[in-house]
Amino acid sequence: MRYTHHAFICTNLSSCAQHDPEKIQKYLKSRLKELGLHREIRANKSGCLDGCSYSPVTVVYPEGIWYRLLTEEDAERVLQEHLIGGKPVEALMVRELNLDYPFQTHSEQVENSSQ
After folding, report:
1. Closest to 7 (Cα-Cα) out of 66, 77, 47, 91
2. In whole angstroms, how far apart are CA 102 and each of 1, 13, 90?
3. C-beta separation of 103 from 90 below 8 A
4. Which domain does 37 fall in, by range?
5. Residues whose CB is less than 8 angstroms from the CB of residue 28 and which lie 6 or more positions away in sequence, other chains included
6. H helical segments located in 1-115
7. Cα Rg for the chain, rounded, in angstroms?
8. Structural contact between residues 28 and 64, judged by C-beta atoms closer than 8 angstroms
């Protein structure tokens, strides 16, 4: 596989564009280059991903994890924890678009954080 991860950021002119997703895409792309990861991980603009009700949406492959990234801080968290660290960021995921993902319950999160 050429890339370990590929993030597609919807920049469609309808609902996603209202949230300036190009800013998120440019941020991720520049951070990947800055970290020397631009040959392993891609962050590309995409057309409509049919997630308009949850806009702005980003989908990360190969896992097919859907996120709602509103700020550069959100993007940095996904970059560090998921794209680099390999652990999806549940707090930023769109639950309705990640139906097969085994979300932890609140009690599991508390239990795991105390260990």
Report:
1. 66
2. 25, 32, 10
3. yes
4. 5-113
5. 7, 9, 43, 75, 79
6. 21-34, 72-78, 106-113
7. 14
8. no
* Dist. CA 109–CA 73, nearest whole Å: 22
d(CA 51, CA 31): 25
Helices and strands of the chain, counted as H and E runs: 3, 4
> How many domains does the chain contain in total?
1
> In which residue are the tokens 């599991």 written?
108
User: In whole angstroms, what is the distance from residue 6 CA to residue 9 CA?
Assistant: 10
Per-residue pLDDT of the chain (115 residues; tens, 9 = 90+): 689 999 999 998 777 777 789 999 999 999 999 999 999 999 999 998 988 888 899 999 999 999 999 999 999 999 999 999 999 999 999 999 999 999 986 544 444 444 5
Q: What does the alpha-carbon distance between residue 21 and residue 30 come to, in Å, rounded to a whole number?
A: 14
Residue 99 belongs to domain with CATH number? 3.40.30.10
